[in-house]
Each structure stands twice: as structure tokens, then as C-alpha cells.
Amino acid sequence: MECGEYVVMPGFVDSHTHLVFAGGRDEEFAMRSAGLTYQEIASQGGGILNTVKAVRSSTKKELKKTSRKYLAAMLRHGSTTVEIKSGYGLDMDNEVKMLETIAELSKEEVIGIIPTFLGAHALPPEFKSDIDGYVREINGRMLPYVAEHKLSRFCDVFCENGYFGLREAASILTQGQALGLTAKLHAEELSPLGGAELAARFHAASADHLEHITERGIHALAAEGVVGVLLPGVSFFLNHKFAPARDMIDAGVAVALATDFNPGSCMSYSIPLMMTIACTHMQMTPEEAIVASTLNAAAALQMSDHIGSLEVGKRADILLLQIPNYRYLAYHFGENHVDRVIKDGVVLEF
Ligand code: NIG
Ligand code: FE
What we know:
Layout lengths: L6 E4 L1 E3 L11 H8 L4 H6 L4 H9 L3 H17 L2 E7 L6 H17 L3 E9 L10 H18 L5 E4 L8 H13 L3 E6 L7 H7 L4 E4 L5 H10 L2 E4 L1 H7 L6 H6 L4 E3 L13 H11 L4 H8 L1 H6 L17 E4 L6 H4 L6 E6 L2 E2 L3
Parallel strand pairs: 2-3, 3-4, 4-5, 5-6, 6-7, 7-8, 8-9
Antiparallel strand pairs: 1-10, 10-11, 11-12
N-(iminomethyl)-L-glutamic acid (NIG) binds next to helix 3.
């Protein structure tokens, strides 16, 4: 194949998404544009619980149909591997339904799919004032089932005020590890709780978000080699603080970029758009943004031996981009520059 006029690079690895969901949250988007915050909307029963209602009343077939559409679009935008979290079911049957949907998609679709169990994404209405009861449900029933049926190799928790605190997160990650699942953590998204330090203590594959990470947290991640997965689209979409990417990189943290694609906090699956925001609002260089979306993102999924760079022995996940040089990927934004995608050595036809 003649690639003379193209920029050739490894496929993007989107290491943090909530791609399986039902419905949309465009009404919340309009409410935010009128001045309400993400937290205010969540405390009025919207937010994650809004999508939970829609997912609970959807069949696997329906979930697969919408997800397929998003996965195809993602691949066209250059992502050849994507991580997808559960977390819109929040009870045994619906969390398993989500993970089985992800597993089936992974068998049927060309794009590489890595599932993550996120039963601790929000408190379901049934356990509204009984967080200990829900943690018991996760630790006693959900995690053992997920491990036994090999539905996920990762266990994630949304560690945040009003969701799961450090104590609950530690209890869930401990049980996950005992059952062979590697920790991941939604940490320091809305407030500096110490989630980064917790992720380091559990040798997590990644700590994600980190908009409010402290200096101590940064050093904890660097010391333990935990990948910091930054999600610029969330800060952009919710008008929140940006994660201190520069400080993290300068302190020796391996930084990855991901979309967080979900209906609430980032309705975009474009990795190049995340690169643009990282370069314009987070002081990352175009080169750092590329490494963060490929090799470091693969490391966040503990897959850097197989994907994330073009090397002999790795999978041939390759993009052909119609741009004058690699800097245009972040520089010329709002346009899809991906001309061809090669997945596992096969040239895809769109
Ligand atoms: O990563 N932070 C928690 N979870 C998602 C938001 C999910 C939603 O709003 O539906 C996130 O931003
Ligand atoms: Fe997330």
C-alpha cells in the first residue's frame, strides 16, 4: 500500500468511556447553558441516575444497537481500541446486562473493546440512604459474579463527595483485588478527596479525571507508576477546572488522554478534539498529546505490550491521516483527518 502523502501513526486508544448507554441528556445540557451546574442537576435526581433509568428499561439488543452506531463512528475517528465501563445499571441484573452487552459487542465488532466494572458509579434509588448496604451488594454479590464469569479485568469506583468516599472505595477495591481485578479510580474530579493517593496505594492501572489533584497526589501517582488518565472534554463540556497536566508530566506521571464519552459530562468520542483541548488549555505539547492518546493510553489498560505504538510484535492498528504533518492533528480541529484505518492488519472499508 502506497502511504507517501499520509501521516502514518498508531490507532488511538480511548482508555476511559461510558459508551454503552440509552437515551440522551440534552435537556441537562440546556439547563447547564442556562446556569445550573452538573452537581445541582445531579442532586435534583438528574445526572447519572437519569441514564440509569433509561438503561434499566432497555434490552441488551437495544443497547447494542445504539452502541454499534457510536463504535463505528469512533473507529472512523481513529480509535482502534476503546475501554467501556458499566455503571448505568447499579443492580445485579442491570450491571450484568451492561457487561454482557459489552462482551457481545467485543466479539462482534472490529474495534478492540476492554470492559470495566463500575458498579460503584452512583448510589441507586433502592439504597438512597444506605451506602453500606449497596457496598455490601457490590462486594458480596456483584464482584464475585463479575470475577467468576470473567466479565471484567478492572474494578473502578467514582470516588467523590455524594458518591463513594475513600472508605467505601477502599473496601470495593480491596474486594476487587481479592477476586483478581485490577483497580482503576475516578479520582479528584470535583474535589480533592485524596483519591489519587488511594489509587497509588492499590497500585491501580490508572487514576482518572484528576482535575483537583494535589501535589501529594501527583507524587503518589509518579512513585507508584499509576497512569493519570486526563479527560479534557469533561472540563470543556461542564466548564470545570482543567487537570494540571503540565505539573503531572513534569513530576514524572505517565499521562493519558481519553474522551470519557458519556451522555452527561462529555458527548464526544473524538480523540483529536481532546488533543486540541489538551494543547490549548492544559499546556501539553502536540507530541505529548499523541503519546497520551496512544502508548500511555495503552498502559492505562495494561496493554502496552500489544497496542499503542507501531512496533514489530504489536498489533497492526494503524491510521493514515491526510494532513501535512502530525501537528495538524491537534492544530486543525473540528475536522476528521482520518482517511484510512487498519485494524489488526486489515484495511477497513467505511
Ligand atoms: O466520568 N464522573 C463520573 N462519571 C462520568 C459521568 C457520567 C454521567 O454523567 O453520566 C464521568 O464524568
Ligand atoms: Fe468516567
